[in-house]
Write a structure and sequence with these properties.
The protein is mainly β and about 100 residues long. The protein has one helix spanning about 60-65; strands at about 1-5, 5-10, 15-20, 30-35, 40-45, 50-55, 70-75, 80-95. It is built from one helix and eight strands, in the order ββββββαββ. The two termini are about 20 Å apart. About 10% of the residues are buried.
């Protein structure tokens, strides 16, 4: 598992959640997010062996995440001002606490 040291969460005008992360290595295969509705952390599974921890989610994002079934992930290179890829992910809500 990797820790996403720098990422952004954007809420679109129609209340969709967008995660903006740095470009990652490896192919994307059946991506999804696992989120514990009582937590401020989420796990992005890009493929079965590549998990990215989205830690310390902003408290303003939590209500949107608790209601969402889907999000968009954008992998972008900020230095080159270029989007590398974007994809939709299902959000799986789990109860761990």
């Amino acid at each position: 598992m990797q820790h996403a040291r720098s990422y952004q969460v954007i809420i679109s005008a129609d209340d969709k959640i967008v995660f903006l992360i740095k470009p990652q290595e490896g192919k994307i295969q059946n991506p999804y997010i696992v989120y514990d509705d009582k937590s401020n952390h989420a796990f992005l599974y890009r493929h079965p062996r590549h998990v990215l921890l989205l830690d310390y989610l902003d408290s303003e994002v939590i209500p949107y995440l608790q209601k969402a079934n889907e999000a968009v992930v954008i992998e972008a290179d900020k230095e080159k001002d270029k989007v590398i890829c974007d994809y939709r992910v299902k959000i799986k809500h789990e109860k761990y606490s």
